[in-house]
Amino acid sequence: MRTTGRRIVIAAVAGLMLGAWPGFSAARAQGRDVVVFAAASLKTALDEIAAHWARATGAPPPKIAYAASNTLARQIEQGAPADLFLSADLDWMAYLAARGLIRPETRVNLLANRIVLIGPKDSKTGLALAPGAALGPALGGGKLAMGNVAAVPAGKYGKAALEKLGLWDAVKGQVAQADNVRAALLLVSRGEAPLGIVYSTDAASDPGVRVIALFPEETHPPVVYPGAVVRDSTNPAAAALLEALQGAAAAEIFARHGFVVLALTRPAS
Question: What is the CATH number of the domain that holds 59?
Answer without folding.
Answer: 3.40.190.10
